[in-house]
Amino acid sequence: MLKIEAVLQPSKLDAVKDALLEAGIEGMTILEARGHGRQKGHTEFYRGREYTVDLLPKVKIELVLHDDMKEKAIQAIIGAARTGRIGDGKIFVSRVDEAIRIRNDERGETAL
Amino acid sequence: MSIHARRLSLLPALAVFSAAALAQTPAAVSGSAPATQAQIAALQQAVQNAQSAGDNAWMLTSAALVLLMTGPGLALFYGGLVRKKNILGTMMQSFAMMGLVTILWAICGYSLAFGHGNMFVGGFEHVFLRGVSLTPNPDYAATIPEQTYMVYQLMFAIITPALITGAFAERMKFSAMAVFLSLWSLFVYCPMAHMVWGVGGLLNATAGHIPSLDFAGGTVVHVTSGVSALVTCIYLGKRIGYPQTNMPPHSMVLSFIGACLLWVGWFGFNAGSALGASPLATSAFINTHFAAAAAALGWTVAEWIHNGKPTALGAISGCVAGLVAITPASGFVQPFSALLIGVVAGAFCSFMVFEVKSRLGYDDSLDAFGVHGAGGTLGALLTGLFATRAINAIYGNGVATGAIDGHWGQELHQLAGVGIAWGISIVGTLILLFVVDKVIGLRVTPEQESAGLDLSQHGEEGYDLNS
Fold first, then answer.
1. What's the rounded Cα separation, in Å, for the pair B124 and B441?
2. What is the CATH number of domain B46-458?
3. Residues 22-61, chain A: which have Cβ within 8 Å of B?
4. What's the ipTM?
5. Which of A48, A52, A53 sits opposite B354 (nearest CB)?
6. What is the pTM of this model?
């Protein structure tokens, strides 16, 4: 079992969700996040002085899936979220030890 | 309907009565004359009552508008500008003034401001509002109950200390603020109000030794609160993390709503200072509106040039600056003078806030000095320049009012009024801050400041959006 975490632009959330559903992935958790990569953010004005705002709004999607769904999920996300500009985001993949369905105690891949 | 129209419309009625009386036989004439006299007297009383009704209606409305300026106008304006963790603490400071100052005013504030005393402060003749009834007090306003006048002035007394809270936002103890501002309203506001508006006041326009023109409180309200704000923010010190940490407004939406309520409420503040539903009230109303609009534009343009973008914060700050500057001038100047005063105030106050504040480094958190202190001072001086007998012949028919009429000496009087306001504010505020600090302690602890006033002072959270 794998966990895929994708940090995205908030404006891309709907497109990515739709692409994942089309790829057959139905379960996901969506979080509101703030952050930045190497570009450090934008400037705002307050009382005539310029400030750097480096905590930009982001959206994070978490998916836990079968190993063989990995490439399909990654391609769905990239296809929907890529613009080619700074701020597109990142995807991280990690292993998951256990998955349990709370409703009926199912464990392992059938719980996904 | 103006008073003239009312009187003219009664002429036909009077003519009929007179004609009827003259047509009678001599014996009948002397018999009916007293009845006619009685009728004329009754009509005159009715005319007076009608004028009083119009004036009282406008004055009560104005009093309500001025209270609206504090709650929720100022509460929202300031509340939106602070960080989320301090929203309730900030609003509570304005609200506390609504409660505390009312009680103090009723007990002795009105007497100290408007009772007979000496040149500097009133006396105790009206403590517990003794002698303040529903009959007019001709010293102040001959057509409205004195209680209307008292409650109208109360709303001014409420908002003045509330303005100061902007300077020490996010770092003063609620208890210390309550004590400090209560004492301030008695020892700084009441004497200043007496000097400018009270019977026998030093700066009173109609009878003082140094007649100073302050229609609705440029010196009494804005200079005193603004300068006291500066003194307080310097005494208290900067917020933790200022100026390196960015502390932007948590809700420009709330501040915007507050600013618009201030604009509308100011019609009561300025036009109500005509103390009646008169053409002078109309002049003040128009000047108020024109100055607000021109100043919003002035600040916005200045900022657009300076920073490349016109901010909402700049626009609403500009409109408040214009309203402040026109306050002393509102019942004295022509409408186009008001536009000019507005534009100048918008540009000047933006300069005070952008350049002077950052260069000198004081943490006047919500620009109480930059807008009210500086704007009020500017407004008082421009009043001396633009006040004209064409709008308000306060010194007598045909007598010059301000510099524009040729009376350049008025500018010296304005300077004196401004100087006294600065003086009493600096000295009074310093003494009170020192005393309250020694007895209670003014500033919250660093931990309380980090946690925010809402939690540390009130045990509450302003927003619990997940509940």
1. 31
2. 1.10.3430.10
3. 44-53
4. 0.72
5. A48
6. 0.88
